[in-house]
């Protein structure tokens, strides 16, 4: 499975602590990202996580009411929601850690 092909991963490479891109620069070309684009990627990540969670809930209701007999679809929807939530929490924790590091710096 190619995890880099997942949509939430694309656009968030600059969140990594090992990147050399300054996220606060204006868009000057293809190689730089603005803070706005990173924030939009994070918002899209949260929306996609919410969509996966809602889809899992719909599958649960369908299975519980007998509209769907496919346990396979239910488990896939639940797993997508779970993985997406775990990824979103990991990104949030990284951002909070970076914020705390910045706040603890003395100038």
Sum up the overall morphology in one term: elongated
Q: Which spans of ≥5 residues are poorly predicted at pLDDT below 50?
A: none
The N- to C-terminal Cα distance equals 45 Å
Report the mean per-residue pLDDT as an integer: 80
Order of helices and strands: HH
Fraction of residues in helix: 55-70%
Strand content: under 5%
Beta strand count: 0
Structural class by sheet pairing and helices: mainly alpha
Number of H- or I-type helical stretches: 2
For the largest beta-sheet, the strand count, sense and barrel status come to:
none
Radius of gyration: 18 Å
Describe the structure.
This protein has 107 residues and is an all-alpha fold. The N and C termini lie far apart (45 Å). α1 packs antiparallel against α2 (71-104). The protein contains two helices and no strands. The mean pLDDT is 80. The longest helix has 34 residues, at 71-104.
């Amino acid at each position: 499975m190619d995890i880099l092909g997942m949509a939430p991963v694309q656009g968030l490479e600059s969140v990594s602590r090992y990147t050399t891109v300054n996220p606060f620069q204006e868009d000057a070309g293809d190689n730089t990202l603005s803070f706005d684009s990173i924030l939009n990627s994070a918002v899209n990540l949260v929306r996609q996580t919410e969509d996966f969670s809602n889809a899992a809930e719909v599958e649960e209701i369908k299975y519980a009411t007998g509209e769907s007999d496919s346990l396979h679809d239910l488990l896939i929807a639940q797993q997508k929601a779970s993985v997406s939530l775990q990824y979103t929490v990991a990104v949030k924790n990284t951002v909070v850690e970076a914020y705390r590091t910045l706040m603890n710096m003395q100038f």
